[in-house]
Structures are given as structure tokens and as C-alpha cells.
Amino acid sequence: MKRKCHFVCKQSQDLYKNILADRIPLIMALLIFNIGCLVGQDNEYGVWTSITVEKKIKKWDLSSTAELRTIDYLNNINRFSVDIDGSYNIFKKLKVGAEAKFIYFHDFKYDDYQPRGRYALYTQGKWKLCRFNFSLREKVECTVKDVSDRIRSSGTIDTYRINPEWYWRNRLKVQYDIPTLPLAPGFSVESFYQLNNPNGNVFDELRYTLSLQYRLSKKRSIEVFGLMAPELNTSSPTTKYVGGVNYIISF
User: I need a labelling partner for 30 at 20 to 30 A (CA). Which of 91, 120, 156, 218 fits?
Assistant: First the structure.
């Protein structure tokens, strides 16, 4: 009788864990999008959706991501992008990489969709403490903007103040693996430092991201996240709020 009760209790616990694992990503996604709608009433709010395909070949990590971003809730497309990323693991806990990204950006000032190119070099270290996974990424990136359709009423081209635009991005992320569940909540903070501002280089943006990654299978996972990004050193500072989801496929 005791064995039977123990078996029933064990089966009930497993069922509860499976139901919880299935529901948490959906619940968190709904919370992120609803909180974003509430806090975004007086600020910018957008939705970022993406799909990532990744492959590991010995010491190489290769990936490609397609992403769509909206602004003003779902009313306007902010940009669409596709990137290719490759990194090499020098040591088990350290890798270096490069990234090339094509961006189709909506320039609202001229209602112009323009192509942009973004190129980056980075290094990333990682270490593990108990069930916590830490990573620190240092990235230098350059964005080249197209100005051919930014034409003033006088007929002259309205150029950007900084073009190309160089940034140093610093991101610290911590993720926790929940025992017996395919869930990994995480938190990250990232800073954006200008490298070629003619008026003086400054930190002009911070990003705080709360995420939850759910392993659907050995090679499939989905990540939902909420992001808050206050702008710094501007005459009229705003805070950007984002709700997002990323589907990851590994080969």
C-alpha cells in the first residue's frame, strides 16, 4: 500500500512539473506583453520576434538570426534584420567572434525604409557557479547608414550627425538552471558607449533584460523576455520597453 501511494505521489509530482513547465513560458510571455502595454503608455513600447539557427562544429559556433521589431506597440515596423555570426572557442571559457548584419530600418523622420550594414567583433567569457551561469561579452560594432532618400525640401540630403556610428557594448548576463525543469531564467544588463561622437563620447543607453528560456527538446528552445532601455545624456530622455520572443533551433 505504501509503495502504491508513493508511486501515485511520484506520478502526480511529475505531472505537476510537466504542466508547470508547459505553462510558465506562456504565462511569462503574457505578463511581459501586458506589463509592456501598461508601462508603455507614456513611453516607447515595441515587440521583438526572432528565430535563430545555430550549429556547433568542433571549436566553432555558427549562427544566423532573423528578427522583426515593432514600435508604438504593433502599429509600426521599426526594423527587420538578418545576421550571420561566427565565434571560435580559444579556451573552454573564452571565445572570440565576428558578426555581420543587414538591417532594413524605418527612418520615421522621412518615412523612409533604408538599408544599413552593421559589423562587429567581440570576445566573450563564461563561468559557472553552482547552477548559475555567468557570461561577460565585450563588443565593438560599426553601423553604416544610408542617407540617399533623406532629402530636405531644399533638395539637399539631410545626413546623420554620426555616420558610420561606432559603439562599444558591454553585457553581463546571469542565467539559472532550475533542477528537474527545462527552464532557465536569466537577467542581463548592457551598456552602449559611443566611440566617435564629435561632441564627446558618452554612455547613451542601458538595457536591462529579464528572460526565461524553455527547452522544448534537445535541439529546440524558446526564450521570452522583457527589456527596459533608458536613454542617457539626451535633452528629452525616454525609456524604451520591449516584450519579445526568440525561437532557437540547434543542429
Answer: 218
Q: Cα–Cα distance between 164 and 15 in angstroms, integer?
A: 54
For 22-45, the pLDDT digits (tens) are 555 555 555 555 555 545 444 578
Instruction: Please answer whether residues 117 and 144 qualify as being in contact, where contact means their C-beta atoms are separated by less than 8 angstroms.
Output: yes
Q: How far apart are alpha carbons 220 and 52 in whole angstroms?
A: 10
Query: How far is 223 from 245, CA to CA, in rounded Å?
Result: 6
pTM for the full predicted model = 0.84
Q: How far apart are the first and last CA of the chain?
A: 47
Q: Measured on CA atoms in the order 235, 104, 70, 216, is the torsion positive or negative?
A: negative
The CATH architecture to which 2-250 belongs is Beta Barrel (2.40)
User: Strand 112-129 and strand 132-145: pairing?
Assistant: antiparallel
Query: Domain limits of the chain?
Result: 2-250
To the nearest 10°, report the CA torsion of 79, 144, 171, 245. Answer: 20
> Which residues neighbour 25 within 8 Å (Cβ) at sequence distance 6 or greater?
183, 212, 214, 222, 224
Secondary structure element (H or E) that encloses residue 126, with its range? strand 112-129
Q: What is the largest CA-CA distance in the chain?
A: 90
Q: What is the pLDDT of residues 186-205, one digit of tens each?
A: 999 999 999 999 989 999 99
